[in-house]
Amino acid sequence: MTNHPQDAEAAAAKEESSPRRGSPFAEQQPVVFAKTRGNTDANTRGGDSSPPLDVGVLPATALGAVAASIAVIPFAAACYWLFPGGGMLVAPLGALLAAMGTVSPRTKTSIVMLLLHLGLFAACFQQTVIAAGI
C-alpha cells in the first residue's frame, strides 16, 4: 500500500465530513453505551414501549415537585381560613405537584402530600359552599 497525496486528501475529507465526538485528548475509542429500552429490536416492540423514568432530568424534576408540594401546604392551609375560594386554586396546584412527584424516589411522601392537598381542596370547597349559603 502506497501513500499517495490523493489518499491523504480523501482521508482528510472523510474526517472532516463527520465531526469528532468525545474528548480530543482521548487515546482510546469511545465507549459504546448499552441499549436502553427505547432502542430495542423490532422483535421486542410488543412489550413496554414507554421511555425509562430514571434517565435525564425527570428524577430531579420529580424531587423538586415533591419539595414544591410540601412548600404549598402552608399556603393552602392559610387559604382555608382566610379565603377558601383561593384554596380551591392553591390545593389542586399542590396536588398536581404531588402527582408529578410520584415518579421520584420519595413516592410515599408524594402520596401523603397528594392526599393532604386533596383533603384541603375538599375542605376549601366545603367552606366556600357554606359561605355562599348553597
From TrEMBL:
Superkingdom, according to UniProt? Bacteria
Skewed-composition ranges (Polar residues): 37-47
Q: Does the keyword Transmembrane helix apply?
A: yes
**TM spans (from-to):** 55-75, 81-99, 111-132
**UniProt keyword annotations, A-Z:** Membrane, Transmembrane, Transmembrane helix
**What are the boundaries of the region Disordered?**
1-51
For this entry, the protein name equals: Uncharacterized protein
What organism is this sequence from? Crateriforma conspicua
